[in-house]
Amino acid sequence: MRAMILAAGRGERMRPLTDHTPKPLLPVGGKPLIVWHLERLAAAGIRDVVINHAWLGEQLPAQLGDGSRYGVRITYSPENPTALETAGGIAHALPLLGQDPFLVINGDIWCDWDPAEAEAKQQDLQNTRADAWLLLVDNPEHHLKGDFLLSAQGKILTDDLESSRAAISGIDVPIRLTFAGIGLYRPSLFHALPRSTPAPLAPLLRAAIARDAVVGTHHRGMWTDVGTPQRLAALDAQRQTAND
Fold it and tell me: Pairing relation of β-strands 2-6 and 27-28?
């Protein structure tokens, strides 16, 4: 299996920290945030990793190199001069990601989910003929409304009342959760997008959900959206304490 780490964003809410450093290279617990992902992927046996970059993107290959020191093989997908957003960045990198479903991780999160589970989730995609599998977490204080409904059967539902009623029965009551920024996707999900054109991921996911083609898992472990300097500082302190 191949993996992609999304690392092209400007990180506006993290300024001034991101004025001179890409957000995935900001330190957490004594090492860059993105290194946590690389090390987890390597431990799970996922060696081939694509990293996209745009803002201050030259710093990523300069610091991470070919990935060998972390036990992975990194291929870079530059998007200069401007980032292509999530779906656009993935579509741009498709030639590097192969024909099978691939794992995508946001570079600006921290999560203790084990990527070793990705192989089983890939099989779930094959069994259900779904186009995407998403990891969902409890809604954080800064995003209490959540993103998606998850049924007890592992289907991600739209907010449309009739489709939700049709998809649930008896005790299968959906719960609203937040997308963790970790997912598995079939390449075909992005085939209609032109390369090198900015495109968000949400419309693609919602279209796939509407055709009953997205499954998900509720992760109850640790997860942080490192979206502000305050959340970065809190995560850094937490990881420093855990390392002591």
Answer: unpaired
CA distances from 19 to 56, 232, 242 (A): 9, 15, 29
pLDDT digits (tens, 9 = 90+) for 90-129: 999 999 999 999 999 999 999 999 999 999 998 888 888 8
Which CATH number does the domain housing residue 108 bear? 3.90.550.10
Rounded to an integer, what distance in angstroms lies between the CA atom of residue 41 and that of residue 72? Answer: 8
Closest CA to 33 of 66, 1, 11: 11
Q: Which residue bears the tokens 């400007």? A: 10
**HSE-up of residue 37 (Cα within 13 Å, Cβ side):** 28
- For 207, the domain range is 2-243
